[in-house]
Specification:
The chain is mainly beta and 155 residues long. It contains 1 helix and 11 strands, in the order αβββββββββββ.
């Protein structure tokens, strides 16, 4: 079973780049039907000599993409948008992952089903736009059981 999971995960490995910015393995979690939001994750690497900033993005399947941060406060998960985005220092990588900083698809217009994919455009302050494709999958190492870490969050 572990070998099957590793094989299916490696089949989804994919990268995109624009100038000094490299995007590794963009993925989004499976959602229930009519979910008001969906989480999306990836790794951003800046191989340049100047910092850059991921500020958000767009996709045909949602109203918009925002950068969000999840924090725990007295045992309660809190979501908040980061309107200025997140800085990617020169020569550094930043992982957007469940339970921390991530991308939030606001008002998706379709259910995200395992194995499907969707196109998106990420916006960077210096690099401009980067066209990518998210793969919808479950994350077996972080799965919460509900398949949606954003339950109860309203945009």
């Amino acid at each position: 079973m572990l070998a099957a999971m590793l094989l299916s995960t490696s089949a989804f490995a994919h990268q995109f780049s624009q100038g000094d910015i490299k995007i590794g393995h963009p993925w989004s979690r499976v959602t229930p039907s009519a979910a008001p939001v969906a989480g999306a994750y990836l790794t951003v690497t800046n191989s340049g000599s100047q910092p850059d900033r991921l500020t958000g993005g767009s996709t045909p399947i949602a109203d918009r993409i925002e950068v969000h941060q999840m924090t725990m406060d007295d045992g309660i998960a809190r979501m908040r948008p980061l309107p200025d985005g997140i800085e990617i220092a020169a020569g550094a990588s930043v992982e957007l992952a469940p339970g921390g900083i991530h991308l939030m698809l606001i008002k998706p217009n379709q259910q995200l089903i395992e194995g499907s994919s969707f196109k998106a455009t990420l916006e960077f302050a210096r690099a401009g736009t980067v066209e990518i494709e998210f793969v919808v999958q479950r994350n077996p190492t972080v799965e919460t059981g509900s398949g949606n870490e954003h339950g109860g969050h309203t945009p």
